[in-house]
Fold each of these.
Amino acid sequence: MGNKISLQEVECIAKLAKIGLTEEEKEKFSGELSAVLEYIEQLKEIDTKDIEPVSQVTGSVNVVREDVANNCDEDTRKKIINNFPEEKGGYVKVKQVM
Amino acid sequence: MRLNELTITEASDRLKNRDLSSVELTTACLDEIKKTDDKIKSFITVTENYALLQAEKADRKIKSGDEKDNLLLGIPCSIKDIILTKNVLTTAASNILKNYIPPYDATLISKLKNRGMVMLGKVNCDAFAHGSSTENSDFFTTHNPWDLERVPGGSSGGSASSVASDQCFYSIGTDTGGSIRQPAAFCGVVGLKPTYGRISRYGLISMTSSTDCPGIMAKNVSDAALLLKELAGKDKMDATSSDRKVDDYFEFIKNENIEGLKIGVPKEYFIEELDSKIKNAVQNAIEKLEKLGAEIVEISLPHTKYAVPTYYIIMPSEVSSNLARFDGIKYGYSEVKSQNSKVKSLEDVYLKSRANGFGSEAKRRIILGTYALSSGYYDAYYLQAQKARALIKKDFDNAFEKVDVIIIPTSPNVAFKIGEHSDNPLELYMEDIFLSAASLAGVPAISIPCGFAKPKNGNVEMPVGMQIIGKHFDEKTILKTANVYEKSGD
């Protein structure tokens, strides 16, 4: 019996998730995740006709706030910038996109 | 009795009487850590100097006579390494955050600092809280203080082991699908997962945002009640935190009358897979509560068996989204900084940073979640799981029309051996069968010790835990029930 998630599918999902995987990992995940998915299949037997999916469970609705930026103090700002792997003039530096 | 074995309230009384100092308490804990942690391995980081400074500060406050009512002042604790602590290494027990120094505190840390917390250090967990044993920590596995060959449970395993071994007075952990309750049961301590939204999530390294709950590990129920009162409440930094009234849990549980309390016992949880010794321990506890005045009602939670499969769709889906932020660009491990880096493109930075930064379980969950959310599968998996979740929640709503609390075991087995399940992720996921439903429904649950049982493959008696589950925001009733049981003695 073939795996529910094929090697090619694992590759394709890994690409979407932007994770590099080794050949061994692809092989391993294809097997393991297929087993997990088979187990999860049992959800299909539940009759969910007319059931609204939940998005929250404790009864809160539409918690909003003003869309305003709060400046942080200089010390915090420096610490955030210090965490950047690459930095230039206080900005995050990334590889060329275009 | 050694100082580090005291409870919070006992230690606080003696601090206030000037019988001992916070520095003495802190030193006793630090000595215990030095003596035992090379075997137990609770701590990723010990903040010795910082702890002693906080203790001296607390002693000055105590001396001045201010804050007489503040029972947390000068009491040493440990914090799960998934909770952000300003200027103190916070790793989520993951390689990708191995060197991460947060620029801010989680709200719960700010609250504890305001109450004069003495933080001894940051404790181990499964990386990103993905697991039930700490075996998924990218650094090392924590050992159960009762039997060092066994796991402490997880993901908050270091929190449980540090409290159980008296390395600290209490610990703050997180519970997304059982990560406080199960290690509390395995290590024989009290573990409280409050209602979703009761304690702010701001400053937690997110796992499953719709079920993540910070919570408490303590030596007894009254200490847990005290801590919940300090930590609960609305936080403008977490839109899902609740503005519901925070009760004075600590005072409330002093009333030990449970006459007429209705305890629901769901038949779906007393199943074959449940170790008979654990079943007996929990049933004895229920009988004891009955003798003390509670009324026992058999109830049904018909969708129980779907809780784990539902959780294993919703959780990885949210994980895949939450862990997208670890991309080698803003913070954490980045391939651009690695010595032999050959990254040329932005795409390479993402792919390689995540490939080398994440451990196996994080990758497994990201892949599964991305699959479940991808077009073509969304309706079959994620949407169906959110509908199943509605039914699981409805089960609890229906049950709580008839009863005040529900009692079930915390885990179907006692702590298992290190390595026993590590080759089979599905087997490990089965650890969650008694835990996932309360997380999905967002209801509060506390695990308390209710005896010991000898595992089939061992000779050491290990702690057994039982869970008391309550209505949304009704932590006071589960704490009261737990306290009455605890006080009834064994």
Amino acid sequence: MWSTLVRWYHQLGSPRYFYRFSTVVLPWLWVLAIVLTAVGLVWGLAFAPEDYQQGNSYRIIFIHVPAAGAALTGYVAMGVAGLVALVWRMKMAEIMIRAIAPFGAVLAAVALLTGAIWGKPTWGTYWVWDARLTSMLIMLFLYLGVVALMKAIEDDRQGARAASLLSVVGVINVVVVKYSVEWWNSLHQGSTINLTRETTMPAEMLVPLLVSMAGIYLLFAVSVLVRARAEILRRERKSRWLQEEV
Amino acid sequence: MYFESFEAFLQMGRHGAYVWSAYGLSLLLIVASLVSAVRAERGARQTVRRLRQRANNAGENAK
């Protein structure tokens, strides 16, 4: 098991292997991601029952929670890539930071926007400066900061170092987002899906939520693979293997 | 379908405007980001093809 993981890590750490791997995987991933997202969202919008307290406004959950969850997970992944890039100077890790940040920013923005719209009928306001909302806004700025740093610094390696540092430090904020509703009083409701405690949601709502969650996570994966390929193509444009591959 | 008619589905009780604007904005952002990613990849691939072409031509001329 361990040796397989190590081998996998080394193989995917090579731009050449990664490029070939993504060529094979991407078509399937595209189909699966689009189908799951569509099924999950349509199910949640049209077939799931109404909420007895919030009425139909709660249907925003089917895009809000997957986007927020994937934005958080994506940030952790970017932090791990940042650590690998800082410690081992691995090229592929630098490429991954650049590949993760844009869609992470989009999902953080989606979570914030849909949350604000959902807040109006539910809390009576679009926005409050409480811990959950504020830390999520900081996450959006961190993602945008990583994108901007990599674009602004001409030298790829130097830009990656700065972006890695920001990615790693920003992981602290992920912890704040995650536990903000428990540490502080917040308008934001506690988490609906729990791994350790019982989930407080009936199956008719939970299943479509899990399906759209899988869909959004896979769309994130698609975006990361496509952007990583673009980055490999840009960095390795002069190498023979790549010219033979395209 | 949970709703009794298509109008009821669009209206979502009193919450149609909230639900549909939330989904519309989300879809717009997600699709725009994916399209820009695909374009970037395609553009980079074309650049590599052009470089290969140039390298091949240079090789031909040297012969």
